[in-house]
Amino acid sequence: MPLRPRRSLVVVPVHAVSRLTRDALSAALSLGDRVVAVNVTHPEDEAQARAFVEDWERWAPEVELVQLFDAHRRLDVPLLTYLARVPEPRVFVLIAEVEPEHAWQRMLQNQRGAVLARALRRRTDAVVCRMRFRVSGRPAPAEPSAARAGAGQR
Q1: Hey, which of 18, 88, 141, 146 has its CA 20 to 30 A from 50?
Q2: What is the pLDDT of residue 144?
Q3: What is the rounded CA–CA span in Å between residue 78 and residue 70?
Q4: What is the pTM of this model?
């Protein structure tokens, strides 16, 4: 029997409009038919939630944004509830994480991604992808044209 693609949804938890969010959504767009960014916030943080939506709309990534609220500041329970309602037969959850350059920095890192991944694996059929983006303190290499221009000025 030939292989056939199945409709899929990629859910990306987001908390800010940032490079991490941009890179995660770019990767998500290559994985599924539909991509949804999910932002979970506390009901009392209305000003922060509104500011996030304004930043999102100004950025305009052409990705659907769903805002969920949780009075206990949990990420897993609202996301599990949301996933239970999606119609797609195949669901991926892409958890974007920053991976510090040094081991001592990793010990200080927030473990929310690992906790969320564990909860999703135990309580859903979603495919969980933890995507780590390396952070480096080194400056980015110069563009080739800029390097040549600088060499000619000496």
Answers
A1: 88
A2: 43
A3: 7
A4: 0.80
94: its two tokens: 């892409």
CA distance 80 to 60: 26
Neighbours of 6 (CB within 10 A): 9
CA 106 to centroid of chain Cα atoms: 19
Name the residue among 138, 131, 133 with its Cα closest to residue 100: 133
Average pLDDT, stretch 121-137? 86
Amino acid at 36: V
Please give the pLDDT value at position 148. 38
CA 136 to chain centre: 19
Q: What is the mean pLDDT of residues 38-63?
A: 95
Beta pairing class for 8-13 and 90-99: parallel
Contact predicate 127/95, CB 8 Å: no
Distance of CA 8 to CAs 34, 84, 102, 145, Å? 7, 14, 36, 42
* Token pair listed for 132: 């780590």
Confidence of residue 47 (pLDDT cuts 50, 70, 90): very high
Torsion angle, alpha carbons of 55, 114, 100, 50, to 10: 10
91 touches 65 (CB < 8 A): no
